[in-house]
Amino acid sequence: MSSPSPAAVKAWLLDLQARIVHALELADGKPFARDAWQRPEGGGGISRVIEEGNVFERGGVNFSHVMGANLPPSAAAGRPELAGRSWEAMGVSLVLHPRNPYAPTVHMNVRFFTTTAEGQEPVWWFGGGMDLTPYYGDEDDARHFHGTCRDALAPYGADLHPRFKQWCDDYFYLKHRKEPRGVGGIFFDDFNAPGFEQSYAMTQSVGESFVKAYLPILMARKDTPYGERERDFQAYRRGRYVEFNLVFDRGTLFGLQSGGRTEAILMSMPPIVKWRYDWQPEAGSAEARLTTDFLVHRDWLQQ
């Protein structure tokens, strides 16, 4: 498979979506709804969504395969010379918002882009990653998540994990708040340097590692006792998630700019959110520790 094979990537993405949904349904005990949709401009997708589940207050695992005549600005931001090309994009993107405040929110996506122009070779690349957003931080959880990310990348080069971790730290950062969105993970984009076969294998490894990275954390935290105070803080911190996705996230911008399905694009939003004016948690509290101990860029694998 020395040249790009969109058909092979699409088959894997659909299978990955099905397997992740199956694992999450077993964890929650409630099935995910299935919503297949078509995009008038070309392509479509399958949204798998759960709301008011036993574990997940809201979550979605979306597959999309869309195409168009002019590459949107958000997709061409790093490569302005590709603006205006015809394009094809496919991927799986998920966000899970557990009800229990001690169980972190998580995001993961893997995607494949290819662009074409008459008389020129296709330009393609992979992107993706995953990141963890706790409301009540736990160092063991952070170490497990980052360790799984490291292990997924290790066969493809020792330099990838530190590079993609730093990229994640830089990307999932609320500039107007001067704070990270969570404890990070890995992020990569415009990835094609090793050639199609290696780039695809590395992306597969990232996608396949998601369940191993997240499910043990979820199962350990989902039954932790909590009260109104914890739910209130969770809703406050979820506001940061909304701010990032609406202001900075390239995936959200690409979806909206490309005429994507709004319901699927905004599936990532948490169902209950609060904003407060200039509120700060009590010094020394578990809520304050989130900022002082966890919303910092650090090497979680350093003992």
From TrEMBL:
Its cofactor is a divalent metal cation. A divalent metal cation binds at residues 97, 107, 146, 176. Gene3D superfamilies: Coproporphyrinogen III oxidase, aerobic. Keywords: Cytoplasm, Heme biosynthesis, Metal-binding, Oxidoreductase, Porphyrin biosynthesis. It is an enzyme of class 1 (oxidoreductase). It is found in: Cytoplasm. Transmembrane segments: none annotated. One of its GO terms (biological process) is protoporphyrinogen IX biosynthetic process. Substrate binds at residues 93, 109-111, 259-261. It comes from the Bacteria. The active site is at residue 107. Homodimer. HAMAP family: Coprogen_oxidas. This is Oxygen-dependent coproporphyrinogen-III oxidase. It comes from Massilia glaciei. The gene is hemF.
